[in-house]
Amino acid sequence: MAKKKWQRFENLVAQIQRTLTPQSKVTQNDRIQGRQTKGLRQIDISIRHKVGQYEILIVMDCKDYKRPIDVKCVEEFMGLVDDVGANKGALVSASGFTNTAKTRAKDAGIDLYRLIDAEKHEWQTFVSIPVLCDFRRIKSFNFVFSGSIPSGINEFRQGFDLRRLVIYDQKGSPIDTLGNLLARRWNNNFLPKEPGTHQNNKLIDYKTFINVEHVLFEVEITTNIIVEKNLYFGQLSLSEIKGFEDQIGGGVVTRSFTTDFLNFAEVEKKWQKVHSEEDLAVTLVLSLTASDYIPLTKFEKKT
Predict the structure, then answer these.
(1) How far is CA 41 from its chain centroid?
(2) 174-220 pLDDT tens trace
(3) Which residue pairs, CB below 8 angstroms and at least 24 apart, start in 19-26?
(4) Single pTM value for the model
(5) How far is CA 190 from the centre of its chain?
(6) Under CATH, what is the fold of the domain 5-117?
(7) Rounded to whole angstroms, how far apart are CA atoms 231 and 131?
(8) Where are the beta strands (DSSP E) in 78-168?
């Protein structure tokens, strides 16, 4: 027989609670004798946990209502918590709670949660988290040559792109172009990523030469770079999360979550550019640091 919607909701809440407290005993549709009423009280979910010689009892009530839960429901649950002698009580709603319900529950020490689950079902929740992306890139650079460099060679004429200059080893074998050497050092984190000017950075760790009319001239080549830092703020969607949103204290109680893939090209286009984290009026969940990737140009090593 197919389970009713409210039963499926209770099952989902119990499943999430078991992942949150795997060391505790979580029971659905429990029966606990009331201290004042002397009768068996129906409990949607009970959580029992041993702490030394003491047993802690927590009771949860699940409400799959279309509208936010009101204060009357909270006060009825307060009576249940007191009657069964629970150490803690929590209400879980599919639609949240009214402000008066939150105020009453906070005063009585009752936790209020809204179910959070990104999986596709009747209670699927679309969740995103506030993220600050710290994006680093080379704003500008130049090359510094030192050595016995012949004057007037074509490669140093005005307008020539030095990134295309081929660099050789002492055997006369081409290594790569200057542009690719710079790109590899940056992409592989061998160049500084801190904002500001960084001088005299090596592009290669052994002797290098340039070829002028089939004659090799030894040169030392370094680069000066200016690194730029840009901050972008946005909401990153979660593809997987199961837990409870705390309706009184804020935040989400969960064991883990998985974010969607982050496309940095989209971040630069669509996210808000900010000057500093202090400019934000929200509490960040994640702060990410990334750097630009410099594509390599095609290079054939012909001697």
Answers:
(1) 43
(2) 999 999 999 999 999 999 999 999 999 999 988 999 888 888 889 99
(3) 19/242, 19/255, 20/243, 20/244, 20/253, 20/254, 20/255, 21/47, 21/49, 23/49, 24/48, 24/49, 25/49
(4) 0.78
(5) 25
(6) Trna Endonuclease; Chain: A, domain 1 (3.40.1350)
(7) 10
(8) 88-93, 111-117, 128-147, 166-168
